[in-house]
Every structure is written in C-alpha cells, then in structure tokens.
Design goal:
Elements (H helix, E strand, L loop, with lengths): L1 H30 L2 H9 L1 H11 L7 H11 L3 E6 H7 L2 H8 L4 E3 L4 E5 L13 E6 L5 H45 L16 H49 L3 H31 L7 E4 H10 L7 E5 L6 E4 L1 H18 L3 E9 L2 E8 L25 H4 L4 H11 L3 E6 L5 E7 L3
Parallel strand pairs: 6-8
Antiparallel strand pairs: 1-4, 2-3, 3-4, 5-7, 8-9, 9-11, 10-11
Length: about 425
C-alpha cells in the first residue's frame, strides 16, 4: 500500500510540476511574464504618478512635478542617459523601452521609462530616461502564494487518489491471496468482492477460470483414481491365474514365457500403485502429522531399500532430534531419491542429514552420470525420463521424483538438484522448522 501510494504521490507531484511550468511558459509566451505582471501591479502607484501626474504637466512644469513626487515618495527617481539604460536591458526590454513603455527590473526592484520620445518635455528630454528605484516590489510573497496554491491543488488530488489506491490495493491483496491459495492446491479458493469494487470484473474472470480449472483437475483426478482402482482387480486375477498356469505348465519354455509375463504384470502393478500415490498427493486429504525421531526414521528408510550392486554410505548423526510432519510421506520421498540414485550410480550412493535451528537438510549423492542443468527442473514432471533412462531396467515410470517433489512441497520444503562431490547428482531436501 505504501509503495503504491508513494508512486502515485511522485507521479501526481511530477505531473503538477510539469503542468505548472507549461502554464508558466505558455502565459509568458502569450501574455508576458506573470511575475512581471505581479511586480507591475505592486508598483502601480508609482507608475500612475508618472503617467497621470508628471506626464500631464506642461513642458515648463514637468521637472517641477517630478521634484514634488521625489519629495513625497520613498521611491528614488533619477534621470539617467539612454545609452546607460540600453546597455542594462535585454533586447526585448530594449525594444519596449524605445517604444516609451515602462520596463520593470525585478532583480533591482526598479523601473525604466523614457522621459520623451520627441524632446517636447524640456530640452534634451529625448536623450534621458527615468530610473525609479526602491519600488515596493516583493516577489517572495507572490512565490509563496503560488507554492500554497500548488500544495492545495496537490493535496486536493492526492487525498482522493490515496483513498482510491487504498481500496484498490486491498482488492489486489485479496486477489493475490486467492491466487496463492489456489496455486498451493486449495482449488476451492475464490475471490469474494462487491460489484462496486474497482477490480470486480477481473475477480469474476479469475473465479470463472479457477472454477474451470478445478472442474478439469477434479475430473482428471477422479478418472485417474477410479481407473487405477479398477485396474487392480483384474491385475490381481491375472496374478493368480499366472501362478496357477506356472504351476501346471510342464514345458520349460512356456514357464519362462509365463515368468516374463508375470514380470510385466508386476511392472503394471507398480505403475498403478505409483499412480494411486500421485492421486493421493494431489487430493485434498490432510497429511498425517506426527512427531518422529529423525535419526531412526532416516536409518530405517535406508535399511529398507532392496539389495543393490552399489554401496550405500549412511551418514545420519545420532541425536538429530524429532520432527513434526508426515513421517511416511517424507520417508517415501527420501526412499524414492535413494532408489533413483541406486539405479544410476556406478558404485556408491551416500545419504547424509543435518538438523539446524529446527530445519532439516537431507542430501542424497551418487557417483553416476549426473543430470544436465537444463533438465533438472523437468525431471520432477510426471512421466518425464531422461534419454538415458528409457531403458526398462533402469528408467522406471518417471513418477518417483515427481512424488518426492510433491511430498516435500506439501511440507513447505524444497528439493534441489546439484552436482555431487562424488561426480554424479546431488538431491537436497530442505525442510523448514516444523
């Protein structure tokens, strides 16, 4: 709110300043300098004495009247040569002066005017000018008045803008919160605004879009969940049938083919289980929070891995303390990372953990080929596999890392991929304080 209002404030003040300069130069171009007009008004009494009293005197009484004005006025009136005045004036002022007009000098608080254009006042009057000094000219007061007028206009604009930006910012904040909740998986989140709100049309369109997305995702999840459940029944029947067939088959070649088909069925069963796991993570079901011992959970996760040809180095210190979260889900994510590392490691996989200030860091390293930088974000997408991972024996289904990423994200943590000191890939789980 403060940032938005500050931007509006600066914009309005700059606009008013630019407008003031434009107005000043326009008036100066069309009607003359406004400050000079103010100074002329302040010196109106002295100009009136010159034009209506001194100038109306006969030729032999002109100097007498000028001397009488000198006696009663605090302004000093002097007669100076024209050449001196012309040197002091600019080109525009000199032209006005030669026409017999009164020329105001704001800096010296004085004025100049020719005595006579034709020498009728007295002998030599066409070669002299009147220089009136110490005129009652105070431009500071005029500038202060302009500044006050400027502030009043600025406040008159900023106050309604402030109220408008405040309500506008509140509506935007509400919309931002809805977008954050929706992006975090709360598909029921909607923006509730009144028709009179400034961004009501935008909120309605976002709500409509959110509704369509929710419908599509719910349909997709429902279909995935239903199909996965429905497939499990025929898979179970096929498993039973293959076992019976394998026991009754006497042909060795036939038994080998049946074993291969059982392997395919086992792979299909694993895929269905992974899909059901993905569906549960995408659902709105709450996590099963509990307090569990980190050291025991991580060591148990490492020891429950299937046997592999690569060595597993577990560096989980004693006394890491407890953590409050879904232990089953976090250990599944860690197990997926370890199994992934076992697939691609050449000879070694390392698991390490660190607990600091309530937060937890779990690291899985391997000495395999690693993951290219440009593909490190893509590997968390469902069913995405690297080109070298498309072999049936090592590639899996492309769901393990996706499940791990979702599990960590549900706990408010992050999962990053870096280059391991072992030469392969390093997966780092960062969990916030519980």
């Amino acid at each position: 709110m403060n940032r938005l209002f500050l931007r509006f404030f600066i914009l309005v003040m700059l606009s008013i300043s630019v407008a003031a300069f434009i107005v000043y130069f326009t008036i100066d171009r069309l009607f003359g300098d406004p400050l000079e007009n103010i100074a002329r008004n302040q010196a109106a009494a002295q100009i009136f004495l010159l034009e209506q009293y001194v100038d109306q005197a006969p030729a032999d009484g002109w100097l007498d009247r000028l001397n009488k004005v000198r006696e009663v006025s605090e302004v000093r009136f002097d007669l100076v040569p024209l050449a001196v005045v012309r040197e002091h004036l600019s080109n525009a002022e000199r032209a006005a002066f030669d026409r017999g007009e009164v020329v105001i000098d704001l800096a010296d608080r004085s004025l100049y005017r020719r005595v006579d254009l034709s020498g009728d006042r007295y002998i030599g009057s066409d070669e002299e000018a009147i220089h009136a000094q110490n005129l009652p000219i105070d431009i500071k007061v005029a500038l202060q008045m302009e500044a006050v007028r400027y502030l009043i206009v600025a406040l008159a604009l900023l106050v309604p803008i402030g109220f408008w930006s405040r309500s506008h910012w509140r509506s935007l904040q509400q919309l931002m919160k809805v977008a954050d909740r929706f992006g975090a998986g709360q598909l029921k989140a909607r923006a509730e605004m009144k028709p009179g709100d400034s961004i009501y049309p935008l909120a309605e369109r976002i709500n409509h879009m959110a509704g369509r997305i929710e419908t599509l995702l719910e349909s997709q999840r429902g279909l995935l969940h239903s199909v996965s459940h429905e497939i499990r029944t025929p898979i179970a029947r096929l498993e039973f049938a293959f076992e019976l067939l394998h026991d009754t088959a006497e042909d060795v070649l036939l038994q080998k083919r049946i074993g291969s088909m059982q392997g395919d069925l086992t792979e299909l069963k694993s895929l269905v289980n992974e899909l059901l796991g993905m569906a549960r993570l995408d659902s709105d079901q709450p996590l099963r929070y509990e307090t569990f011992d980190l050291t025991e959970a991580l060591r148990s996760c490492a020891h429950s891995l299937p046997p592999a040809t690569v060595s597993l180095d577990v560096s989980v210190p004693d006394g890491m303390g407890t953590y409050y979260g879904d232990c089953r889900l976090l250990m599944r994510a860690t197990g997926n990372l370890l199994r992934n590392a076992q697939k691609y490691a050449n000879s070694k996989v390392a698991l390490s953990a660190l607990s600091k200030l309530g937060g937890v860091t779990i690291t899985v390293d391997d000495d395999g080929p690693g993951i290219p930088e440009e593909e490190r974000e893509k590997v968390f997408e469902p069913f995405y596999r690297l080109d070298r991972s498309r072999d049936r024996n090592t590639g899996g289904f492309g769901l393990g890392l996706s499940i791990a990423g979702k599990a960590i994200s549900l706990h408010g943590g992050s999962l990053k991929i870096e280059t391991s000191p072992l030469g392969g890939a390093r997966f780092t789980i960062s969990l916030p304080p519980a």
